[in-house]
Amino acid sequence: MALLDDVAVLARAAAASIDDIGAAAGRASVKAAGVVVDDTAVTPQYVHGLNADRELPIIRKIAVGSLRNKLLIILPAILLLSEFLPFLLTPILMVGGAYLCYEGAEKIWHRVKGHDEAHASVEEALPDEKTIVTGAVRTDFILSAEIMVISLNEVVDQGFWSRAIILAIVALGITVLVYGVVGLIVKMDDVGLHLAQRSSAGVARFGRGLVKGMPKLLSALTVVGTAAMLWVGGHILLVGTDELGLHVLYEVVHHLEEAAADATGALGSVIGWVVNTLGSALLGLVVGAIVVTVLSLTLHRRTADEASGAKAH
Prior knowledge:
Helices cover 85% and strands 0% of the residues. It is built from twelve helices and no strands. By secondary structure, the chain is mainly α. The chain is globular.
């Protein structure tokens, strides 16, 4: 009877621990919700303009790459760093933030400059799936690292193995959520085509509306995704510089946020968030523009010179 009583106590303790892990995973996921939205907005641009039958396979490959990043690279790395070298987390995250700023600024630069399509061959114009997946997984790596570090900060008081389990749950749940929504978004035009063939006039009208509206939505998400890169990257740099002791940029944005919130009454929290977001995006644009300029004057120019030399030979 004493043994059974001990087993019952252990079972209750295990159940309580599972409840605690579930609650902690929920808190961590909610805290990272802002980056999750950005991740969802960024991804559809990678399949925009591709054949419909290749959209879901590419999204599946990106999702698998994202989950692999989270579970096999990011999770072990941040657990070990948080345990032995916690001071390195912020600088590493800032490097990723600078990369996001670069990607966002580069997309804006290409949009403003325009593509030189006069010399592009048909083969060069066709999207290469391997390149698309590699680029998407690389960008997702930065966003995933941000999600996981934010989640880690919410469960830093837990034990090592509890943290590992919680972050694994967060990684799996957020990956399924993000790429499930992305898959739904990119296939809504097919749903619209199916509904447009129904006998009900109202349902058919709704289906035709979906078919007409989805290209516009995907184009809008491309813009939102670019803005999200600048916002998230800029915010990583803003918070990171403050944590490293350079408080000027963070304090300026924070004071502007508070002033806007105090001046707008009931809408203060929303307006304050908008001001903070715009400040982060502006910082991201400036940093990204600097990186694009430096790379254009060095790496990209060297690549172009090498290509010209190869053609000459």
